[in-house]
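debug: dumping io for the single-chain case to check the tokenizer round-trip. Nothing else runs in this session.
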Amino acid sequence: MKPTFFAAVAAALFATAASAESIIEIVDPYVLSAGMNAKSGAAFFTIRNTGDTDDRLIDAKSDAAARVELHTHIMEDGIAKMRQVEDGFPIPAGSEHLLMRGADHVMFMGLNEPFVDGKMVAVTLVFESGLTLDVEIPVDLGRANNAEANGHGSMDHGKN
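debug: decoded output
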């Protein structure tokens, strides 16, 4: 069963009576790292906005790592690199945004302890609308399918 976290009640708390609201759902979240000695990891999920107002994921926070950033992959001189996305990820009304390997994701750098398969990682997602969602994301190393071979473990995480 794919976990889905509904935030309609939280969104309603942040919306004013006179304004439209975004209603955000986090669908099929999982976290992985390249192994027990990895210094970094990433979270992947779908952000679904079932409301009638555009929103944007602008930050992610977690005690699981020294730094947590929104990242994407770019091609630079024929080399795939990861870069922080300072403006965040748009979540249009009635649409969704997929965070997936090789594209947009939440990056954990300087892990405080290894990601252990089956454990949960607490993450706070911050949206432009003022909505914050506390999400428990399962570590699912079975989805890794050799993350190192897919370039994630050796990726350049520097800034633009």
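debug: round-trip ok. Residues 1-20, 146-160 have pLDDT under 50 and may be disordered.
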